Amino acid sequence: MHLQHANLIKAMIHYESGNPARIQHFLKVHELAALIGTLEGLDEHTQFILETTAILHDIGIPVSIAKYGSYTWKTQESEGPAEAEKLMIESGNFSQEVIQRVKYLIAHHHTYNNISGMDYQILLEADILVNLSESVSKNYKALTHVFRTQTGKSFLHDMYHVNL
Ligand SMILES: [Fe+2]
Question: Is 137 a residue whose pLDDT tops 80?
Answer without folding.
Answer: no
